[in-house]
Amino acid sequence: MAARQPQTLEEAIRTYADPEVCRELVIGLRWPGGKVTCPVCGSDRARYLARAGVWKCAGGHARAKFSLKSGTPLQNSALGLDKWLPLAWMLANSTARVRSVEVHRRLGVTQKTAWLMLHRGSHAIEAHEPSRGLDLSDIYRESKKRDPGEWPAWAGAGVARGEMVEGAPAFERFCRVLQAVLRVPYAEMRRRRQRKRRKREPS
């Protein structure tokens, strides 16, 4: 089945309310070859448990069961992909800074949850590195109109503190940003958050 390609946030919210559509998209972006691999050992000997919505690795190690979010910045989040994918759409395609009140209103989460989602999204995008095989420089470029320090990393028009390059299709921008985030290991994102927290603490 061909992937649905929403062109607006409203379409994205409706499209990704379907768990099966979310699953197909994330599998395609996280494992482009179509073979799901275990985030712990890298084995492709994993069986899908449809009732639980998770895979079980045959590697015989601890934490054998894993989900689409395991090993990514979305790990341990109680929120489903029906919330995270529209947020990624907003970050990829907004032409102004994405604020928690907007996420709260559009995605139907509390404002505290919206703030936490944006906070986690900021660390995930900051942790993205082109060396992992996905360069976003043709989608976002450095802004010369503003002081780069004015932009948080999750600003919709300023991912990586740059401006959106006009002309890139909305669905393509969304997929590229989401794929970049999914390639960031959860452990690495946590280390970055801890380093930032230590820097803020008074010596």
Indicate the topology.
Blueprint: H1 9-15, H2 19-30, E1 46-49, E2 54-57, E3 65-66, H3 81-93, H4 100-107, H5 111-127, E4 140-142, E5 162-164, H6 170-182, H7 186-200
Antiparallel strand pairs: 1-2, 2-3, 4-5
Helix pairs in contact: 3-6, 4-5
How would you explain this protein's 3D organization?
β1 and β2 (54-57) form a beta hairpin. The protein has a 3-stranded antiparallel beta sheet, with no helix packed on it. The protein contains 7 helices and 5 strands; from the N terminus they run ααβββαααββαα. It has helices at 9-15, 19-30, 81-93, 100-107, 111-127, 170-182, 186-200; strands at residues 46-49, 54-57, 65-66, 140-142, 162-164. The protein starts with 8 loop residues before the first helix and ends with a helix. The protein folds into 2 domains: 9-28 and 72-197, no CATH class; 38-68, no CATH class. The chain has 203 residues and is mainly alpha-helical.
In short:
The chain has helices at 9-15, 19-30, 81-93, 100-107, 111-127, 170-182, 186-200, and strands spanning 46-49, 54-57, 65-66, 140-142, 162-164. With 203 residues, the protein is mostly helical.
